[in-house]
Request: fold
Amino acid sequence: MDPSVNANANGLAQTLDGPTNPMVTPLLTDLYQFTMAYAYWKAGKHLEQAVFDLFFRKNPFGGEYTIFAGLEECIQFIANFKFKDEEIAFLRTALPATCEDDFFEYLRGIDCSDVEVHAISEGSVVFPKIPLLRVQGPIAVVQLLETPFVNLVNYASLVATNAARHRFVAGKSKNLLEFGLRRAQGPDGGISASKYCYIGGFDASSNVAAGRLFGIPLRGTHSHAFVSSFMSPDEIVEKALRSSDGSVTCEDFVSLVQSWLNKIQWSNSFRGIFGETNQSELAAFTSYALAFPTNFLALVDTYDVMRSGVPNFSAVALALSDLGYKAAGIRLDSGDLAYLSIESRKFFCAIEKEFGVIGFGKMTITASNDLNEETLDALNKQGHEVDAFGIGTYLVTCYAQAALGCVFKLVEINNQPRIKLSEDVSKVSIPCKKRCYRLFGREGYPLVDIMTGENEPPPKVAERILCRHPFNESKRAYVVPQCVEELLKCYWPGSSDKRREELPPLKKIRERCIQQLSQMRPDHMRRLNPTPYKVSVSAKLYDFIHFLWLNEAPVGELQ
Reply:
């Protein structure tokens, strides 16, 4: 979409690009949103002021935290929300013929200038029941935003959380590379995964389009096909390589590599460990090094890791070292990754000791091959020498859980609180327009999130406040917060005079995510049996919820 210029009541012109995916238009919604919009319009209710909360009911992956993502796309969507003539024309064919022409003229004129959006900052750690977004405006317009908002937040938050969980298991020191594009659910799934895995703590992606769109660092080497495409070193025609400082040129780099391979084979440290290596693999590595002498990282498991791949790589890396270059490392894509990484590290350390090449023993070892949380955890328990992990299928498809389950519920209409009841207590909504706070304890960890009515006084530092479970009357606790953070901020003021929070760049969102995760108490973060984080309501809101519940629930009659 074209950038849209919006002016809020502060008189500040706001220019926002449209959503990343051009398919995100006002038509990207469920049909019943339009049928409800028509019914609201027909009943004269379409301009009534409504408040909706977007939230989820349960943390994903059996954990006790979630990363909120997708806010930027939501704001870009409403900043550019406008029906085109061809979209109106299609809606005339999609809706029943009984829909009046004036309704379509109404649709043609609407935008989101009267909609207000308050949200938690993107990249924040969030919990069930707390509104991620609070959307206020004319009910027909806000209803049309439900499906696209849920769509834009659901997968984004799920995959960002999945990435954060992988980061937690891998540890802070490891490089995490997102390699999921080819296995993602379509192009949008691939682009979204790259963006939100980066927010969740991954360091780089293989996805070139995502690199261009979002500035995400790119990583990649070559495949097994590149290695097996070579038959012998005789295929290499251009054999010259200039040294890194440009002072000399090695006219026959292929021979230099071969001489290093002979030295390794006949050295005391490696005598008898391996025999003849695969010469087509050596040719492929040599050719790749000639193409990328400053970034030579080789896939070493096409034929045999320890008998061919690692020795061949080492010969090429030593030849590059002679010319002032430093090889980047190896990638393991099959086999026993723990054992092979340890053996490769031993080989590299022996090279450093035998030939005096400083730093060779610290060569980067990258592992891939259908990795997930469980395999990372197992590798940690076994012990390994992997420095970086390339993770794809299980990460981007969120194999362990299909969806987050975000919902969009009406909580107020014309200043009248509304509640959605259910026999399943977890599905009862928390009514009215609310404010949300995070209360921190003495050690700097968050203790509890609390929701209050909009007009209640906010919690104060060092003042005791009663926090109640929304539905279980026996679960309650007094908290004396050492710090109070209000969670919902105005990201789209509509026609109000509220100050609009700026949308931060992707890098800042990622930094926020990492910083928020570091603040969490370790027992909330652990993989097995994590401690649930407390989400509460104020005493006043608790009383009101239960008053409204009893007021709305029908009274049965026994015969």
